[in-house]
Amino acid sequence: MITLFGFGPGFGLPEISPFVTKTEVQLKMAGLDYRKEQARPPASPKGQLPFITDDGETVADSTFIRAHIEGKYGFDFDAPLSLQARAQAWAFERMIEHHVYWALVGARWVDDANFAKGPAHFFDGAPDHLRDKMREDAQFRVAENYLLSGLGRHAPDEDVDLAVRSLFALSVQLGDKPYLMGNTPCGTDATAFGAVAGILTPFFDSPLRARVEKFDNLTAYVDRMMLQYYPEFGWAPLQQEAA
């Protein structure tokens, strides 16, 4: 059986990491049996989550896990998309993972109030004399990566503006369809869902969340995907909250 290693539930979400969420939803899409275990990034061969073990083979990084599922189990996440639609789906996935994701990171880690409410608690189990320093160092490292991503080089309102332009593109692509590319979910839906749900979780307040909540089709999309893939979680519908 496949074992998926992730962070686990938190921040009002069934899984903290949008990348782990992506892989978990894709495992569900493929109808594969799996079990889930909590881990921390140093346990992974690539120093990041998720990773899986499958019959003694370890595969790290969500994109390579998808390729492993497709190759070993013959599941096509993008059926029945045309070649052009597959290319478009890939382009949206890259936009989400290399742009939208970093906006989420900024809202969680760079915003001091959200950091104190959320990621700072990753270090609650550290020794008393090291805890504050570990929190400070971790926030600094993430903020440095946020800067290197490009978004962190802009003023707070400017980085949100840029992120919202990408989310607007996602909203336009979704339109009134149930899924990004049509009437059936594809691999990129798992990616989009993980990132947008991570932004919209009511656990964190941020200017980014406030702006994204105005895209009614994205909030409905997150509600729909959550009900479909995590029916046991008890997600409070975002549209209901907005009302």
UniProtKB/TrEMBL annotation:
| Gene3D superfamilies (UniProt xref) | 1.20.1050.10, Glutaredoxin
The Metaxin glutathione S-transferase domain covers: 165-225
Domain Thioredoxin-like fold: residue ranges: 18-114
A Pfam cross-reference name: GST_C_6
- The protein depicted here goes by the name GST N-terminal domain-containing protein
Family matches, as InterPro entries = FAX/IsoI-like, Glutathione-S-Trfase_C_sf, Glutathione_S-Trfase, Metaxin_GST, Mito_Protein_Transport_Metaxin, Thioredoxin-like_fold, Thioredoxin-like_sf
